[in-house]
Design goal:
Radius of gyration: 13 Å
CATH class: Alpha Beta
GO molecular function: dihydrolipoyl dehydrogenase (NADH) activity; flavin adenine dinucleotide binding
Largest sheet: 3 strands, antiparallel
EC number: 1.8.1.4
Shape: globular
CATH topology: Enolase-like, domain 1
Strand content: 15-25%
Cofactor: FAD
Helix content: 25-40%
Organism: bioreactor metagenome
Number of helices: 5
Family: Belongs to the class-I pyridine nucleotide-disulfide oxidoreductase family.
Number of strands: 3
Distance between the termini: 32 Å
Oligomer: single chain
Structural class: alpha+beta
Strand order of the largest sheet: 1-2-3
């Protein structure tokens, strides 16, 4: 689901976004461009949308697809272990970002 689709359906949602440029694996691969964006229902924290633009997106999108298909919440994902260093950590960080708990981010532009 996209933000526009959520708005059309009057679904209140949270957004978490994580950049590949803040991920060690992506940087060592020389592929720091791109991001993962996760949408979660505001009240239930259920994952309702995942968007990935970046290196090996097709290798990561299954994390989001499984979360949506199985009705997982932000908290369910947070309780999972993500290997390090991996690109899938960008998905984890975006999920945590939905509730303001992401720890890896790019410095703010001045």
């Amino acid at each position: 689901m996209t933000e526009d689709e959520a708005k059309e359906k009057n679904i209140e949602y949270l957004v978490g976004k994580s950049m590949f440029g803040a991920n060690g694996k992506a940087l060592t691969m020389g592929e720091g461009e791109g991001f993962v964006k996760v949408l979660a229902e505001k009240e239930s924290h259920k994952i309702i949308g995942v968007h990935i633009m970046g290196p090996h997106a097709s290798d990561i999108i299954h994390d989001g697809a499984m979360a949506i298909q199985n009705g997982l919440t932000v908290e369910n994902i947070k309780e999972s272990v993500f290997s390090h260093p991996t690109l899938s950590e960008v998905f984890y960080e975006a999920v945590c970002g939905c509730i303001g708990e992401a720890i890896h981010s790019l410095p703010k532009k001045k």
